[in-house]
Amino acid sequence: MRFFLDENETPAILPPLSTVFFLHEFRTAHDEGLSGVMDTELLHAVSDRGFDAIMTQDRNQLSNRDERDALIETGLHWVGHRQPDAEGLLYIVNSTAAYLAAMPHILDEMSNVTGAHAFHVRNLPLLKGQRVTVSRLKT
Description:
five-stranded parallel beta sheet; 6 helices; 5 strands; VapC45_PIN-like
């Protein structure tokens, strides 16, 4: 399958996704020369270029009538998540991990559905205590 990363997604997620899911293609708006293109036109251009889904943080594409209609008309799947409440490395790691964990399920579902669907990816908990426990080793 071919996935288009909207320009609101960090391109830093591209190498891990491409490495783990090497049978699939992941391209950015910059790679495709589509930076700055308005959403309705963008969705048609992405579909015309043979992409199966757009990966984005733009949830308005689901609520804006014209954009939602463009998704339905083109059959393009919407894969997205809320922007993590983090910055820098923690932002990149959270976005990457969320997509990596969700992608097997997304790929499975995409192979079993027809027409455009929305896949809402859940972010990971960000607090240290939610991700790791630290304890001193004793002799």
